[in-house]
Amino acid sequence: MLEFAILGLLQQSPMHGYELRKELAQLLGGLRSISFGSLYPALKRLHAAGYITTADPEPKALLPADAPPLTGRRGKVVYTITAEGKERFHELVSETGPEAYDDSGLFGVRLAFFRHTAADARLRILEGRRRTVERQREGLRASLARTRERVDRYTLELQQHGLDSVDREVRWLSELIDHERRTAQSPDPSADTSADPPSEPL
């Protein structure tokens, strides 16, 4: 997930490590906390694979005061995606198997880069995610039915809250899927005047 997100961000513009960390934090939101201890090894792997390259540090471009000690006070190293990295990113955004939607964290990152994903691939990923969440919903319903008479009211409320959250996600995914289908059926997708894709449920 992290390396996919890095390639996606560098696809937009070159960045140094501190910028990448800030952008990743915004992209992933509450899904995951990104530390320099996980970011730099990922950058090293991508560099070794030939997917990114580095430019010499700019002597006057010093890191912010709150940058971690391991970065030093030298100039920032700027990371740029290579042609091989762009090809790899294209391969990743084209994947539509369970690896693209079973994990909620990776699905969230994939969704953030949907503008780089073909329409048919977007639809397959959304449909796959909905199937995954529907299976989770059925499991929660079965668990709730089995334990309803044996748990206290607070545990019951917690279980019901989880079921309500999954119900909201299924509805949200269904709206996204309907939007994708309407857009695909439009003779001129750029002329689609329907509402923007719905926001993710709270």
TrEMBL record:
The reply to whether Coiled coil figures as a keyword in the UniProt entry is yes
- Looking at the record, the residues that make up the Transcription regulator PadR N-terminal domain are 6-90
In terms of InterPro entries, this protein maps to: Metal_resp_DNA-bind_regulator, Tscrpt_reg_PadR_N, WH-like_DNA-bd_sf, WH_DNA-bd_sf
**Coiled-coil ranges per UniProt:** 130-157
Q: Which GO terms describe its molecular function?
A: DNA binding
Listed Low complexity bias regions: 184-202
Q: Disordered: where is this region?
A: 179-202
What keywords are assigned to this protein? Coiled coil, DNA-binding
Q: One matching Pfam family, short form?
A: PadR
- Which PANTHER family did the record assign? CONSERVED PROTEIN (PTHR33169:SF26), PADR-FAMILY TRANSCRIPTIONAL REGULATOR (PTHR33169)
Protein name per UniProt? DNA-binding PadR family transcriptional regulator
